[in-house]
Amino acid sequence: MGVSIQERWTDDAAVVLYPGDTRELLGTMPDDCAQLVITSPPYNLAKAYERKRLDLEEYVRDQAQVIGECVRILRRGGSLCWEVGNHVTGDEIVPLDLLLYPVFRRHRDPSSVTASSGTSSTASTASAASRAATR
User: Fold this and answer.
1) Alpha-carbon torsion 91, 97, 101, 107, what sign?
2) Range of the domain at 120
3) In 10 A of CB 58, how many CB atoms?
4) How far apart are the first and last CA of the chain?
5) Number of separate domains in the chain
6) Under a CB-based contact definition with an 8 Å cutoff, are residues 115 and 54 in contact?
């Protein structure tokens, strides 16, 4: 017997693979309902599938809302896997995980997080997962 993959969240869905704007899905989900969130948000490169290219400050604000919602829906001990790349302009390459790391840090409980080495993406995921684990 295989696992059923749903496109919308329900109480009995084992796996949800949502083919749309995650903000729409997250708004329908209750607190503490997900064990694992895996997402690859837009890199803000003005690709055809992205809404539009935002300035970096607006992009971080937009992603901060999504990160907050992802943390809200995580169960105690849950994990958040956030895959991002680089913001590229004609004269600059900015690693998005460096810009988003402070957003993830706002969601952590300092009493439950131990220092760890690794990339900013790893630290961001650990901070969000730690936050969910302490709720």
Assistant:
1) positive
2) 5-133
3) 12
4) 34
5) 1
6) no
Token pair 């790349």 is found at: 85
CA distance 36 to 39: 10
The length of the chain is 135
Backbone angles phi, psi at 37, to 5 degrees: -120, 125
Tokens (6 digits) for 7: 């496109």
Among residues 133, 120, 116, 54, the alpha carbon closest in space to that of 87 is found at 54
**Per-residue pLDDT tens listing for the chain (135 residues):** 688 888 888 888 888 888 888 889 999 999 999 999 988 888 887 777 777 888 889 999 999 999 999 999 999 888 999 998 888 888 889 899 999 999 999 887 544 333 332 333 434 444 444 444 444
